[in-house]
Write a structure and sequence with these properties.
- The protein has about 140 residues and is mostly helical.
- The protein has one domain.
- Helices cover about 70% and strands about 5% of the residues.
- The chain has four helices and two strands; from the N terminus they run H-E-E-H-H-H.
- A two-stranded antiparallel ribbon has the order 1-2.
- Helix 2 runs antiparallel to helix 3 and helix 3 runs antiparallel to helix 4.
Length: about 140
């Protein structure tokens, strides 16, 4: 009996990165929408004292840009053996750390703080799955 090895499926890195960014933006906009639906106002005082509101465009941008930059860097540098294992630690740490650096210090209402923290936390599994996909 002859056995054949299952071919390894590799996904183009650009597809992995674009897919992860798209999924993250959709998930975070859904979280933002739920926050709005339950009464979160996403208003805070910006540096300089001016009142500001986090809108859907801001959520999408603050989701897409860092994830796109980080995953692109990991994809381009993945040939170095230490890059992806390091990224698998750094990406979740940054997602959680930015809750304490950006979200909690802002004078947001509780619903807004919880929703935005959930947006940060949603990036953990998305970035880990994307980085694992880049390994294949």
């Amino acid at each position: 009996m002859t056995t054949t090895a299952t071919p390894v499926r590799t996904r183009p890195p650009a597809v992995v990165v674009a897919g992860a960014v798209l999924v993250a933006v959709v998930v975070n906009l859904a979280i933002y929408g739920i926050g709005r639906a339950v009464g979160a106002d996403f208003a805070f005082t910006a540096a300089g004292g001016s009142p500001t509101t986090v809108d859907a465009v801001t959520v999408a941008g603050f989701t897409a840009v860092p994830l796109l930059v980080g995953l692109t860097a990991a994809a381009l540098l993945r040939r170095w053996s230490w890059v992806l294992p390091t990224a698998l630690v750094v990406a979740p740490l940054l997602a959680v750390a930015t809750i304490f650096l950006m979200t909690i210090p802002a004078d947001l209402d509780t619903g807004s703080t919880v929703a935005l923290a959930c947006c940060h936390l949603a990036l953990v599994p998305i970035s880990v799955l994307a980085l694992r996909a880049l390994r294949d």
